[in-house]
Amino acid sequence: MKLRGWSVATSWTVTVLWCVVSVGVSITSLVALALPTWFIRPNPPAASFGVWWWSGPGRIQWVDETKYEIPPPAQHQDHWLQELALPYVVSAQDNLHESEMSSDPYRVAVTDNFFQVRWSITGGASIWIIVGALYGGAAVVLASTGLAGPLMIPILKPKARSSFTRLLSNMQAAAVSVQLLSLVLYPLGLGSEFARQVCGEEHTTIYSCGDCSLGYGYFLAIVSTTVAAYCPVLARLITYRDYSPYWSSVNYL
């Protein structure tokens, strides 16, 4: 009877690659989550919105020598602009290309007498809050497992190392599944009053963006999640069975 011995070996090249990919996709996911460009309305007045932030236009008017007031644009009577682009005050600066509001977290970017206001979408769909929590939480799990691997794998024994990497692989597979679910759930918010006001009430509904189009924030999230799907596979390849040659076994003959 021919018996072939084996031992648990570790591929440190795969370990480093897995760590870099895990941390990289988690950072990319968080960046995509912060972008206010998941859906873009190209038609004037141009606007865009994401999971937690949105961006809209307006005009700067002179108030006095030290301050500028930002009222809703009178030439556009869209309901969403009248409600969300309320008057705010920013400090006057010699360079109007960058100015910051006195009240955080509002920020204004001024270019040619136009500005963009970004803040949390209080008028958006509640499903976006859930999507943000799920997608962001899954990204944190990917980063945590990617950092825990290189720290723990070297100090574990071979068999424990194999079990640990299998556990990390399962955790990352669950995190990627949550991210995929979040990307599928996000368009449900297009049926909200906010999305319909921005993208057009006539054609905007669940999974139909009306006058809006997919933005690079959404595409970045999709690409990041697609790459993240390889992380559980790489985690499984960190440890492997190193079989000894037949002739090294006493039972070979």
Automatic annotation (TrEMBL):
Transmembrane residue ranges: 12-35, 127-155, 167-188, 216-238
Organism domain of life: Eukaryota
Coiled-coil ranges from the UniProt annotation: none
GO CC term, one of those recorded: membrane
Location within or outside the cell: Membrane
UniProt topology in membrane: Multi-pass membrane protein
Pfam families: L_HMGIC_fpl (PF10242)
Source organism of the structure: Hyalella azteca
Protein known as: Uncharacterized protein LOC108667846
Keyword annotations of the record: Membrane, Transmembrane, Transmembrane helix
Record-linked InterPro entries: LHFPL
